[in-house]
Amino acid sequence: MSSRKRAVRFAVSIGLAVVLLALFLRNLDFAAVGAALRNAHPGWLVTAAVAGLVATPPIRSWRWGRLLKGYRASALDLNSATAIGFAASTLLPARAGEVVRPVALSRSAALPLAPCLVSIALERLIDLLVTIALFVVFALGWAPQALTGDEASRFALLRRSAFLLGAGTVAGVALLTLFAARPDLARRLAAPVLRLFPERFSARLASILDSLLSGLAALRTVRDAGIVAALSVLLWLVICFQIWATLKAFDLELPYPVSFFVLTWAVLGLAIPTPGGVGGYHAAVAYALAGFYAVPKNTAAAFALASHAVSFVPITLLGLGFLVAGGFSLKNLADERPPNVP
């Protein structure tokens, strides 16, 4: 990536973070936010931090190893690359960790980069499906009851969107599972489309398709798909426990499934490409609690700050430790150009 493009991306990411932080901080009573943070129960915050370190990297890395079927990587390499990737997402703009993580694993475990990248794409699709499923479970049995006006309309829109997106994601996963079992069918269906492109581009696209089909080997049998699904559900239930424990730290006595709802807003906030989700995460999570559960805005803000800290600070410190131990540089890892990309 050129210096100019890197500078533009950095400026846009930081600009978004500043704007979103300003929206999050406006109209807050900082003294009240500080008091809520001081009065939070440290035991629950420590519990939340430990839960985050259990989910990421151990469970996530375990699943990643399953998605890399056919390629051997040690638990240490998987865990260190995962931690380094999350540290990169915290410290660098535009969710750079999504590239840094597979690059770090490729270098430390001497694996080809293409399947590592494909495994991350497949991982993100699976994560989308699980988080949508958790929101649907929440919406069916634990939706807030006393909503009126704009909040009621927004929740209804969010629920309809989740159902539609969930149906589309399920259809997509079913298609990918079919292609995993029948890669020859995928190649036959793709062939007429590839012929529409110039030869240079069609060859690269065919290479990307082959990498994708190779990555789908992790879902080729019912047993393999079941193990990946079970690990994915376990991963996100532990992350939701982290959210629920943080709620308990602020004496917010809400049922555990409400953490599925907070998770949905956290994911939406993190989709905005700011370093570590700064600004987007805080604004989205605070709005979820204040807008839909009538949590005082200063308490909701304090929760968002604490939840972000327990989610990102421990894993970032761990990732930096692995980075130093492995002799890596975040800049060099982030600048690695993915193979076979036109």
Can you walk me through this structure?
Helices cover 79% and strands 0% of the residues. The model has no long low-confidence stretch (mean pLDDT 86). The chain has 14 helices and no strands. The longest helix has 33 residues, at 149-181. The chain is mostly helical and 342 residues long. It is globular, with a radius of gyration of 21 Å.
Q: What are the salient characteristics of this protein?
A:
single chain, 342 residues, mainly alpha, 14 helices, 79% helix, globular
Task: Outline the secondary-structure elements.
Layout: H1 3-25, H2 30-38, H3 42-67, H4 75-91, H5 97-109, H6 113-141, H7 149-181, H8 183-194, H9 199-215, H10 222-249, H11 258-270, H12 280-293, H13 297-326, H14 330-334
Helix pairs in contact: 1-12, 2-13, 3-4, 3-10, 3-13, 4-5, 4-13, 5-6, 6-7, 6-9, 6-10, 6-11, 7-8, 8-9, 10-11, 10-13, 11-12, 12-13
